[in-house]
């Protein structure tokens, strides 16, 4: 009983914390994507719950690193938060030579949503399963190309890791976002790509592209007939990739404030509105304690760092 009683004052203090002035929520992406959608859902939730202003500020430049740099060097008062994703908060550490922040500059608050990517091919590619596709790639080394949303973005590292594990050779073609890559795939200018399931599902349903597998560990309920990559071949048994979108604060924020914001993320994800939006995006709620999210982010940094290093890709932050 005593340990439980010792927890009560901390919980009470967490629930009692409220911002004493407007909050700013920086978004490491342009308006319209999943990062932006989740940021605006959370800002609206906080305003409704706390009655305080939360300003959403999109700063998608530098592949999301500009927003991250600003929050990394903000005052640790819980008034400036970051809504970011797998790119700027995990892949970036091994991708960029001159990144102006490091993991120690942040206090991860909680993840919010995880979504699978999906492997899609142009209908002219003569395959219907992942083993058939790998065999096709092996028969045509260096002849097929895959689209990405940009160097180091999740569609790129998905393709790179796929090639590494299957020992296949296909060249990436980098675009400014997934939308133009998908257009080129539908036109047959590239042969395949990994795209976020939430944005690719319409093209899959209308037959513009052919889906082979999802990148998550399990099948997705929106397309239950589609296998997970890891179940298709022994070479892909360790393959698991989820795009994820969470909240970060500057390092050193007060524990009661950290707990209060963390619990509001949990509360938001349990609302009917949030559940409906996550379902629309073929995503799953991914709440975690600050400790759980910190451990998860550190594991993602290590995992994708190994993929990027094997690929031999590094660029300058802009």
From TrEMBL:
One Pfam family hit: TctC
Record-linked CDD domains: PBP2_Bug_TTT
Superkingdom of origin organism: Bacteria
Entry's family note: Belongs to the UPF0065 (bug) family.
UniProt protein name: Tripartite tricarboxylate transporter substrate binding protein
The organism of origin for this protein: Teichococcus wenyumeiae
């Amino acid at each position: 009983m005593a340990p439980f009683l010792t927890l009560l004052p901390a919980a009470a203090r967490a629930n009692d914390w409220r911002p004493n002035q407007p909050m700013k929520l920086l978004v490491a992406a342009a308006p319209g994507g999943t990062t932006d959608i989740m940021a605006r859902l959370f800002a609206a939730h906080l305003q409704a719950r706390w009655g305080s202003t939360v300003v959403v500020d999109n700063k998608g430049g530098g592949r999301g690193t500009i927003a991250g740099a600003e929050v990394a060097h903000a005052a640790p008062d819980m008034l400036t938060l970051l809504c970011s994703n797998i790119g700027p908060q995990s892949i970036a550490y091994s991708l960029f030579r001159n990144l102006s922040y490091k993991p120690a500059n942040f206090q991860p608050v909680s993840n919010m949503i995880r979504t699978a990517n999906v492997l899609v091919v142009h209908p002219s590619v003569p395959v219907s399963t992942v083993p058939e596709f790998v065999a096709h790639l092996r028969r045509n080394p260096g002849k097929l190309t895959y689209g990405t949303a940009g160097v180091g973005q999740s569609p790129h590292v998905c393709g790179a890791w796929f090639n590494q594990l299957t020992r296949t050779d296909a060249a990436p073609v980098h675009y400014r976002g997934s939308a133009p890559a998908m257009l080129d795939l539908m036109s047959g200018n590239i042969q395949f790509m990994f795209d976020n399931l939430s944005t690719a599902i319409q093209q899959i349903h209308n037959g513009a592209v052919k889906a082979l597998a999802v990148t998550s560990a399990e099948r997705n309920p929106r397309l239950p007939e589609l296998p997970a990559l890891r179940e298709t071949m022994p070479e892909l048994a360790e393959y698991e990739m989820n795009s994820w979108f969470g909240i970060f604060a500057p390092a050193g924020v007060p524990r009661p404030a950290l707990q209060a914001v963390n619990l509001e993320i949990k509360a938001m994800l349990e609302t009917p509105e949030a559940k409906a939006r996550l379902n629309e995006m073929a995503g799953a709620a991914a709440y975690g304690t600050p400790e759980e999210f910190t451990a998860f982010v550190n594991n993602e940094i290590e995992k994708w760092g190994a993929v990027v290093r094997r690929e031999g890709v590094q660029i300058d932050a802009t």
